[in-house]
Structure prediction request, 759 residues.
Amino acid sequence: MTLATGFMALPRNLLRLLGETVVALVLRPPPWRTVVTQMYNVGFRSVVFIAVTLGFLGLITVYQGCIQALKVLPDLSMVGAAFINVMIMEFGPTITALMVATRVGSGIAAELGTMVVTDQVEALEVSNTDPVEYVVAPRFLAVVVMMFVLTIFAILVATLAGMVMADLRFQVNPHTFLTLAYVEWGDVYIGLTKVFLYGVSIPIIAAESGFRASGGSEGVGQSTTRAVVNTLFAVIILDFVVAGAAFIIRMQFE
Amino acid sequence: MTRVLLDVLGTFGQVILQACRVVGGLTVLQTRILLAMFPPDFDYDETVRQFFKVGVKSVAVVVATALLTGAIMVIQSGNSVQETGATGLVGWATGTAVLSEVGPILIGLMFSGRVGANNTAELGAMVVTDQVNALRVLGMDPVRYLVVPRFLSMIVMLVLLTCIGDLFALTGGAIACQAILGIDQRVFWQSVLDSHLLDEMTMGLVKAFVFGGAISVVSCYFGLNVKGGAEGVGRAVNDSVVTAAISIFVANFLVTTIWI
Amino acid sequence: MEPVVEIAGVSKLFSGTPVLQDCDLRLEPGRVHGLVGPGGSGKTLILKTLSTLLRPDSGSVILFGTTVDYGDRDGLRALRDRIGVQFQNLALFDFLNVFDNVAFPLVMTPDPPPTDEIDQRVHEALVEVGLPETAHLRLPELSGGMQRRVALARAAISGADLMVFDDPTGGLDPVFSSRIFVLIGELQERTGSTVVLASHDVDRMTRICGRFHVMDQGRRIYSGNIEDGRESEDRRIRTFLTVEA
Prediction:
């Protein structure tokens, strides 16, 4: 019984926090300087991390892709096109979001958790400052915007790495590799939808976890780890939902 | 503008220095772990406790992740299947991707978030409250008493969980195949069986072995090196999951290129 | 005179354990109230209750003659504008420097005073707590005792009608503790505000507190002046009011 009610309470809390954040953003938008500082933090903290992880992902995807493709196809002329397609609609958004969840999500939870256990949130309240408006809203906006920027960056890095791998190991000419032949607008919309939903959910889930922190440094540690698992899992669920929904919608049209 | 440029350059240098320091620290810790294991001299009871803790904590999240991963991969391959009509290839494409690459990586990332992050927080809290120093005063080596049990249990458990995960990923793929692609799931299973994926699966399990080792060493290193109070623990957890993610992607690349 | 704070029959459970049990408290205006009691007796919780930060499970809280309605946001806002709090955990914002921390209650009011007035008041407040020249520093650069004084300055800056100090001298050396108590006494005399402070330092509290309230196990067990308390029939009250810090 308690498990079931706990299970239902989480989505309700998340939706309420999302609502409060959006209302605060619309009614009392944060000063743009604060948002820019937060965007700088988000981008700055994760840019090297994303370059390394997505670079290696690009290398290995092309490597495996070429080896597997050679089993069923005569040549590798379309490997680049398929690679870029899957990067735009699947791996680019999703793996970037997993990295942002790891880096930025846990950071937001740690920051808010520390504020809760050291009574800073109550100090805000007694000064008539809404913690959602003052702390969550600027971070939320920054993550939503930066998710798009970082995903584009990630796709570029992965494609560059994949191109080098294709050229050096499989002798696929960069001209042949770099083609948008398989990319339709529909794929781009799917990718953008994913990026937007990931950007909305990561800061909200992380903040909710931080707000629930209790009791000293142990509580901050717990809320941070909870944020990592919950945001990672949310990204995977959203990926499934969007991919499935998009596939079904496409079938209706064809 | 110059400030931003200097910031970028400065951070670049800091990242490199920090990376060197972390790699050095991880190597030392790994060496000390191996020294403690051969000949075996570590805490047996704590090892058994850790096996249970790690396994129980992560089995649900691994199963859920695997189910969704299989389904996502089936949907992805579904696009090209729709165009070519080659339904027999769904099982092959999904099986290869899930067993050899995507499955181990995603399960590894979730495992790092669940077990690795928790381990860093736990060890970090022990450091902050001087419990680790108390162990040292009692003449107990933190590596033998705390780290080796975690190292062993994470490696064994991640390999076992990936076995379970592989099964659930294929099941998730089969369900998605029937429910979303509208292809009979028997076609999917037949295609998986026809593709002879034992080699891919073995490589995936070798990856799980390597990831488990990397996650445990990284999470113990950051946990034992916490500085400062509550804030320090939060920062250590963050560093730990980030470093673990980097090692997962790098190790994944190395294992695949060496294997094939 | 009408009391500033009137708490009646307040109870609170934390995961099944009662932490406040049918507790009541009356604070008359314009004096320094001392709150004493052993650790875990509910001092911090009753202070949070009268700062509107803790919502009790039952009972009523009346502040400045208004019953606190936790659903009424504007009503809460109006009450909180008249309250200044120094938290036991200090609760200084680590993302702001010393100046911005102290200025926070002024800046966050509906119509903040002009910038140079804020500047002046923050500097005066910092000088008062013996921390001139620290305005630009970040919090990690300060010692624990200095941070405690910054928190004190922040609680006092807006000259609120009700000022709450939770253990203002914890971890401070005896000389500075005396100074902090003198400062709080002067602050009360100058502003005429109602001050309530919780501490274990009964000896120094007697110099400024006109009235004492003793807490034990989530209940208020005594209110009155120190002399009567020290001659009370109840051994607990006698003990808590005579312990040396």
